[in-house]
Amino acid sequence: MKKAGINFVFVLIITLIFSGTAIALRVSPGAFCAQGVEAGRDLDTGIDLVIDNETDREREFSIKVTKPEMPKDKSLSGYSEIPNLSWFYLEKEKIVVPAKGQGKSRIHINIPKEDKYYNQHWAVSCLIEYTGGKRLFQEAISPVYMIETKSKRMPEERPYGKAGVAPSVVNIKASRGSFKIFNNTKGAREYTITTFVPEREEGRLTINASNGFEWIGSASWIKPVVRRVRLAKGGSREIELTASLPREISLGKKGIEALVFIESDKGERNFVRVWVE
């Protein structure tokens, strides 16, 4: 789906389900990744959060934007909490859903117009709860949504976050490309730089390939020229990437993609998407 220049990759097509005795609640989308979000626009995503009430009586639900509960493994490594929950909002915070019916609330994203908010990877959650009284098992669902702001090679401000990157999307041209790492912490850091291709697992939320792209066949085809770099407080450094692809490789509809991860010795993480078109 594409809306106002934004790519929406639906990471989980399936609905989230909470069911049991006298309980039937479905919420969709279970997750999505909005890529290329522009700072300084109140974006109508064109996507509704949909609640299905499968019971025989009318029910009311509340929707609250919350910090995400990120997986403890590396499936979403590199995403961080959105700095301000108000930047992700819904038109309705309470929905009355008819029996055997649906309720909808349009999703909006509104990030302030500041250059530091380009090149970001953020996550946010929505807590959907039944408000019709206490139950032994309280009905609640918390889908997770990812937001990737527009990539910008030379922002006028240092990218936001402890481990900033610019650009967040690298287009490989003539087998070479580059991006810059920014140490925005209060001390020196040593960064490890690795190429990575996520493995899709059923029912597990992972980073998805960009719309129209396919994951690269081998992470070894994209290599950082240096794999470790030490930066002083406030320091930055350009990291060069080289591509070496088999001659017979197919580039798919738009191209192939890999991720390059940056992780500091203190655990700060970020990543860039690398496109070979």
What does the model show?
It is a single chain. The protein is mainly β and 277 residues long. The chain folds into two domains: 2-149, Sandwich (Immunoglobulin-like); 163-276, Immunoglobulins (Immunoglobulin-like). 0% of the residues lie in helices and 52% in strands. The protein has no helices and 24 strands. A hairpin with a 2-residue loop joins strand 1 (2-3) and strand 2 (6-12). The radius of gyration is 20 Å and the shape is globular. It starts with a strand and ends with a strand.
Using the alpha-carbon principal axes, give the shape. globular
> How many structural domains can be distinguished in the coordinates?
2
Could you tell me the radius of gyration in angstroms? 20 Å
Mean pLDDT: 87
How much of the sequence lies in strands comes to: over 45%
Summarize the structure.
The protein has 277 residues and is mostly beta strands. The protein has strands spanning 2-3, 6-12, 16-20, 23-28, 31-37, 42-53, 59-66, 80-81, 88-90, 94-97, 101-110, 121-130, 140-141, 144-149, 163-166, 169-171, 176-183, 189-196, 213-215, 222-224, 228-231, 236-243, 255-264, 269-276.
